[in-house]
């Protein structure tokens, strides 16, 4: 069976009807993105892998009763985010989720890793500095929009923000990046 030709609703229908091949394909396609997203919360490979496995196990166990009609990717990211925050917050009960999430986002930035891989020359350093000007929430929003390719409705629900606020957050992020990069180019030409 060629699962690549199926949309998310069709793939989920096959999983719900006990197709282990479809389930394996789903794991293969989305687990790497979930792992990269998990690195925004913790540097612990073991915790991220455990949460991914638990999310997939939960999905398999509830496949008969769960309804996914459009975006399987969004469903997975939502379940993953909820579970990793729950798991990590149990380690640090004295901090609120927002404080904890903010601290974790500072520890490991996937965007920084992508920048280092894509740019080996001087522009890498400039872009890295520009990204560091973004807040943790801006980094997460930009990551989800441009690297994970979730739509605005999905990101707003995932990050628990209103859509107009999300538009504003991403717009300001892009403006900060653009201004920072333009400033560095202009200062170099003077």
UniProtKB/TrEMBL annotation:
Q: Which InterPro entries match?
A: RNA_pol_sigma-70-like, RNA_pol_sigma-70_dom, RNA_pol_sigma70_r2, RNA_pol_sigma70_r4_t2, RNA_pol_sigma_r2, RNA_pol_sigma_r3/r4-like, WH-like_DNA-bd_sf
The source's domain of life comes to Bacteria
Keywords (A to Z) from UniProt: Sigma factor, Transcription, Transcription regulation
**Which Pfam families does this chain map to?**
Sigma70_r2 (PF04542), Sigma70_r4_2 (PF08281)
Q: Which residues form the RNA polymerase sigma-70 region domain?
A: 28-90
Query: Which residues does the UniProt record annotate as the domain RNA polymerase sigma factor 70 region 4 type?
Result: 125-174
Question: Sorted alphabetically, which CDD domains does this protein's record hold?
Answer: Sigma70_r4
- PANTHER family according to UniProt: RNA POLYMERASE ECF-TYPE SIGMA FACTO (PTHR43133), RNA POLYMERASE SIGMA-70 FACTOR ECF SUBFAMILY (PTHR43133:SF46)
Q: Which family does it belong to?
A: Belongs to the sigma-70 factor family. ECF subfamily.
Name of this protein: RNA polymerase sigma factor
């Amino acid at each position: 069976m060629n699962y690549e030709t199926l949309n998310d609703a069709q793939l989920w229908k096959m999983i719900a009807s006990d197709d282990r091949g479809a389930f394996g394909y789903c794991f293969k396609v989305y687990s790497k993105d979930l792992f990269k997203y998990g690195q925004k919360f913790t540097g612990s490979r073991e915790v991220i892998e455990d949460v991914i496995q638990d999310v997939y196990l939960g999905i398999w166990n509830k496949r008969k009763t769960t309804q996914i009609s459009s975006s399987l990717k969004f469903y997975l990211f939502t379940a993953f985010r909820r579970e990793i925050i729950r798991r990590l917050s149990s380690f640090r009960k004295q901090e609120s989720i927002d404080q904890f999430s903010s601290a974790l986002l500072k520890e490991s930035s996937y965007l920084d890793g992508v920048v280092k891989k894509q740019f080996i020359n001087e522009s890498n350093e400039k872009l890295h500095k520009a990204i560091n000007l973004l807040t943790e929430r801006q980094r997460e929003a930009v990551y989800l929009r441009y690297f994970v390719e979730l739509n605005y409705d999905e990101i707003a629900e995932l990050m628990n923000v209103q859509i107009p606020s999300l538009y504003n957050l991403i717009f300001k992020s892009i403006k900060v990046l653009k201004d920072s990069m333009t400033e560095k180019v202009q200062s170099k030409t003077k």
